[in-house]
Amino acid sequence: MKHPFSSIQLGSIFALGAAFLFSTKAIFIKQAYALSPLVDGTVLMALRMASALPFFLLICWLNRHHNQDIKAKDWFLLMVAGLIGYYFSSWLDFAGLMYISASLERIILFLYPTLTVIASSFIYKQKLSLKSIFAIALSYGGTVIVMLQEQSHTPNESGFWLGASFVFASAVAFAAYLLMTPKLMLKFGSWHFTGLALSIACMGTLVHFALTIPEPVQLLQRLPLSVLGYGIALGFFVTVLPTILMMQSI
Q1: Contact (CB, 8 A) for 76 and 139
Q2: Which of 58, 77, 129, 245 has the fewest CB atoms found within 10 Å of its own CB?
């Protein structure tokens, strides 16, 4: 029986689903920050990635026979992609949310598609269409307007710009990850690549947590159960599901 959707339509549906789930991340994070003074970006990221790691390890195991003709350079690039896309980018985003609102964070972070388009035009020497240029200008113009409006109502101006800078740097890092993804997916396969890259990101996050937080086990024991619940929700609903949808859309 013929599939009711074309590959482009199906990919678009997956991408929309991933964007919707990703967009809930800032809400969960801000709610968790408000529940306890012990919670910061590093702690919440560790909860998120610890919850997601078992799922990504399972994906790796189920797709372990896929790799063929994979070189050491490919493994190195996969490690870099995982650390940039879901460790470094996420840490910057979580840190930025300590200073700015969830709504502004979403607006800034979702500039990453424009960054990907601009970078692709330079890398592959493709001229941007007039429609693309207009859409990019509209995106950045609207973002600047919203930023200036929110900044005028923020008492801590230096913290506001620091948070906005962190989130924009997160968008840049995620755009770089997306640019690296297609070729690596062809090498490893979409499912295997997703499992490996995210497992690496999870492990990097947990190492960061263990090295930078004094007495990490005792800290986790003092956290409210509601914070742990938000960490699990971030791990499954805002990391595992949207990441799989994003990879399938690509």
Answers
A1: no
A2: 129
pTM: 0.87
Q: How far apart are CA 81 and CA 178, in angstroms?
A: 8
In this predicted structure, what is the pLDDT of residue 201? Answer: 96
Kindly report the length of the chain: 250
- As a whole number of angstroms, the distance between CA 45 and CA 91 comes to 7
Integer Cα distance of 114 and 164 in angstroms? 17
pLDDT tens-digit profile of 148-202? 888 888 877 888 999 999 999 999 999 999 999 888 988 888 888 989 999 999 9
Tell me the angle at which helices 102-109 and 130-151 cross, rounded to the nearest 10 degrees: 160
